[in-house]
Design brief:
The structure is a homohexamer. Chain A is of the alpha/beta class. Chain A is built from 11 helices and 12 strands.
Chain lengths: 287, 287, 287, 287, 287, 287
């Protein structure tokens, strides 16, 4: 199981400060129970165990947790991020001083359970649209401070990322259209402002607006809160002139219907804002 | 609706860096859509609307979001943290430059929805044990980086906080007991280490261990993963010599049974690790 | 002269830490000459004077410098960022305690002269291509730490920005092509990786590669280090199927020829890596 | 080629945060092109090549760039900071994972080209005054955030540093003299304030002021914007009673005349504010 | 002499930023004397020597100082924190590049002398109460920024820590009692607020207040500024129903009397606010 | 009582982060006693009272403490930094919310007592040498993290500062002399390295070395650990050719003898490393 330098380049900075914050929350001026009760030289080890079926995500944070705590913890990843594993699978083994392991255990699991929860839920959506060619996207409805990690987790679950934030993609919504005095104006102002490497996406609420957006050459169009039949009609009307994204009111029950309607993308806020932590344990024992 | 200085003293530091981080995630080098499309002078306003029944938590973060973005946003809180509101209630009003509101909208909602989610779930647990005298506690199973805010949210929902981290409370678990060579040793080492203002809590797995813990004068005892009937027996055995906390396997269905068994505290990881974001919208319109 | 909140939102964070760093470099533990010689209550004022024809950029940094130093400095901007002013023009007036003005003077001018230098040089390139429809772009060859400000300065001079960094645009260069085993592979891997809102740009060194890039549907093609006549041929071959960008070896003498060859964009490293500080003075006098 | 610990002690802190900032500007949440197109395991290497005659400066920053990106990049410096090299010289070799090299390439070159530009320009001034005994000094007109590195580059080019900032040297200028009510007062206040290890420098605009400054025992006198003949007269008048520094209006054409007039120091803002980046390439190829 | 990972986990974060700050104070942009005069390759070494009888504390900071300066300094600790050593004892040996050792020498000694001063003074108080069963506590009267280290030093001297700050222990003082409208109210509000793992301490000024505090079940009672005879009476009255702490006006002369009066704890502000640096030298010589 | 902007410019940055750190140490996640017991709206006020004769220093830190805690605390300084006040003098008044005052009280006093302790001790040394023309200097033996504040306090007590750190003054000690191969070499290397605005100081251990130092034109000479009679001889020998500083073994008893021996400066480590906190109380009461 290997983590390339580059992988860490990307994330380690953001992970580093986030992991540091999480450790500080939990450790403050120290783990007083261990300080009082556990001899410094004592060694321990244990297994990370999946207690339900899940898709793994978050090992990078776990590694960073123990790296921040000690240079002598060894962590053996048996299944890497993105793997689907069954309940009962041992996914990793860890070994080091008992004090270091006790100090990092909870924070490591908090990351791993929460991020694997996102990956696992994403996979469920992705499986529902299997074979349709439609891709599942995340949104900006992420946990404050964890966006980068949650977006990685979405990819681990088979989803794709939408823009990372307000700075790396133009998405013209209803208020922008009002502010600019119509779709035509908004798109033309955006086009003259934005770098030449970015497409322009416009949110539309109905088929009239869709026509307008197509007329001004929007490259991506977001169909906001439309029914499946409206979406079907939108796909026909568009007939390949723009990419189409569905957003709003999508869940595991209706996602396949939207996909079958022929859109390119479906974005799902629930991937990040409603994923529950999956159950992963770390059973440690002393040597 | 007032926020005292002191309330902010407590939280503002932690909130400040966290909100800053969340804004950086979302804004990077700027909201390019607004920059392109929205005139800087344009004003907007809107209402925060509860779309389901919920308990509010997170206003401090929302305030901080807009304070970081502009000194000219005014935010009028109609219902404060801790209030239970019905679906359809307008909980706050906001006004300011359109660009500032668009820039902060998503991050503000991400905080408010997630933290109100924690408060709302906590209230459900608290309501289940109403009249029993048992208190609902949170755990350390919090979202990395958000512990302080989530623990506030738990209080807003009527719960109480367990220790904040490993540094402000002694909790002797099975591994500590092994490490120290028995409960007696562990408790005595802890007692001689810890400040005189802290109680010592010991986790026990069965009634034999409970006896041992009582024998060495543990002031709080955590009954780990016991059935309701075991807990009932433990309460009898203890008969007031220590406070008792139940932990493990507690859910909305069985929490009242545990409470009726007579324990003082029930700690519930789900309060923070499994709370879903509640639905709150912010509908903005231009002036 | 007004600076909207939102304008500051975007930049103030980055400016803030950068200005802070620049002030620390210059002030360390304090301006010992002023501390020794200038009474704290003494007031001063003065004018920022353009000593050559120039395009202004950098006021936001200047404002931040004096805001960090004192809450009592007033700065009156007579010409805003993006204005072209003749030698001899008073562009701003400042007033405050002498100590504050002496403390910030050099750092403020260092920002203003350097960034106006970038804007001024950009304007020269933009003027050369006037009427051709070609746009002048910057590159990533910026001064370490100043990218955001220099890219703003480029816009103030009438240029447009290329991608901000490696994270917000796909540009496939020769090494990437080798790494992926050909243009087709590289483009297809990029397409399946990248968000749906980004175009894919491919760098080509000759017309054969151009054909390949067109064949795989690259949305933007960078013509690397080609002669004007090669570029002309490339434009013909492409005939609107992709946007074309020229890069490499462009200077004030040949930029118009490249533009007349019909490309959409010309990127010029010199805008940022070879701009010289323009001459702006701040003459202060005591009241 | 060796970098001693101590050399890094001095600079590494400042370089570290500056390099970090520069990498963040360029990399944000990651190099998406490489992530998409380049396999993590792929190795690459290449040569840093001087494309014009130049004096090297900035290796410390280059080392820090790659150290921040990966612990597995090896960098072999063939010519060290301060070396004069001819166009066509290979000045260093680098090897590591392709992704790491692609990620750091631009930032590393931005540092190296700009700082070598400063060293190269400094050397030109130093050569002009060869044999005169006059030393070339830098000023505080440095690029915000880069002062420390640029002042090092000046030394690499054979120049000497003036004070680092307002905190480590007393330089009494015209406004200070007005503020204090005359040169005598200003110098006496400065003397009683400043540590006993610092000399006091006074700026004078004419020979009358020079006399005053000499009369009060200024240890260094800055001749501001004087003609060569005025400077010659000043040297005679002073006749060794103080060190003399020329400042203002000095360029490569007239610097030798000022030096021959007999002053000890000539300070030149252009060393840092008008140095252009020199041309250094890094040609990478995959293994 | 070994420093466990965990020991460093606790402290290294806080020490790291503090040591960094202390080094920056002293080194700024570098040790210019060594840079000028000492060849980079020169090696040196030396001994840390106790020049008076003392209790050691602060090695962790010393280690961090040299670790921050160089990865090639070796430090051999002959006596560990908490050891009592006689004047003339060599307590550690150090070796590395001369420049690194010169750079860190003063800062390292500043930590070691000051913290050993705290440990040494603490030991004097602890020795005075030997055999009485009373424990010596520190207070919050610590040097700003050094609390964590000073509280460690107190433990090294045989003392125990009081609460670390306002956040990890409830101590109800006179103003709190007034604010709450009496001891009963104050204690009951505190009890319902605080986590179940914390005891509640109440400060009383006389025996009437002591009775009140006992009546409401305060678990710890602080006897503020009482005479020895009052304390004796308080101990009798309390007769084991609460722990008793003496605070105010305690010095080396009267501390034993207070201890013999039978209290559990005596807290002494002087341990930290009046400890003088002990004399430890570091004699370096070149190899 | 007024604090100019500039005064704050100098210090506020360093003070800000230091005060922040000190508050975090004490407050962590909040003052739980006040949160539990004191109503947020309650107002309080009080007086800072000198309980012994002292020289004031540290108000800037006190102001910063309360400014960080609340924007609604008003602080009225009746005696400013540098004032000598008698025991019993009210030196300042404070008013604000009770919670804010309780939260900042201890940290504010920790700063004020410790820094006034430095100023007070300095004044004692300065008074001892009154009329001799000798100046009392501090050293680098300062409390880690507080150097800037302690050096200010020394000036408040009538002393002067030595160099701030290793970066702003050349002081050639015995090891440097060995490293350079003699005094002549060391001085000549230092002279060619250092900026032209700095004097060079050389430490000598006896009169032979003094002769050498004078011979090479050292501008300041430090007489290390010499007896009063040696110092007297050194003064005669030097006869004005260099400034002389005495260091080592100086205390309140012998400082006047050294001064009368005719040296210019006496540096005293005890000013900072052995100053005890003076007694200042803050008695608060509720309104």
């Amino acid at each position: 199981m290997e983590y390339t330098d580059q992988a860490f380049l990307m994330e380690s900075d953001r992970i580093d400060s986030l992991v540091q914050r999480a450790l500080e929350e939990d450790l403050g001026f120290g783990d007083i129970t261990s300080k009082a009760v556990v001899d410094p030289g004592l060694m321990a080890g244990g297994e990370f165990l999946a207690k339900e079926d899940l898709v793994l995500a978050g090992w990078a944070a776990v590694l960073q947790v123990f790296r921040n705590l000690s240079s002598h913890v060894s962590l053996d990843l048996l299944h890497s991020d993105g793997s689907f594993v069954r309940a009962g699978t041992v996914i990793g083994r860890i070994q080091g001083r008992a004090r270091s392991l006790f100090a990092g255990e909870r924070v490591a699991l908090n990351f791993l359970q929460q991020l694997s929860g996102v990956a696992t839920l994403t996979r469920k959506f992705v499986e529902r649209v299997a074979g349709t060619g439609t891709e599942i996207l995340d949104t900006r409805k992420t946990t404050p401070g964890l966006r980068c990690l949650e977006k990685d987790a979405v990819r681990m679950g088979g989803g794709k990322n939408h823009r990372f934030g307000l700075y790396d993609g133009i998405l013209i919504k209803d208020n922008h259209i009002v502010a600019a005095g119509g779709i035509r104006n908004a798109v033309s102002r955006a086009r003259s402002f934005v770098e030449h490497m970015k497409k322009i996406e416009v949110e539309v609420k109905n088929l009239v607006e869709l026509d307008e957006a197509l007329a001004v050459g929007a490259e991506v169009i977001l169909l906001d809160n439309m029914s499946v039949s409206q979406v079907r009609e939108a796909v026909q009307k568009t007939s390949g002139r723009a990419s189409l994204e569905v957003s709003g009111g999508v869940n595991l029950d209706n996602v396949r219907d939207y996909a079958l309607a022929g859109v390119n993308f479906i974005s799902v806020g629930a991937l990040t804002h409603s994923a529950k932590a999956v159950d992963i344990s770390l059973e440690l024992s002393l040597f």
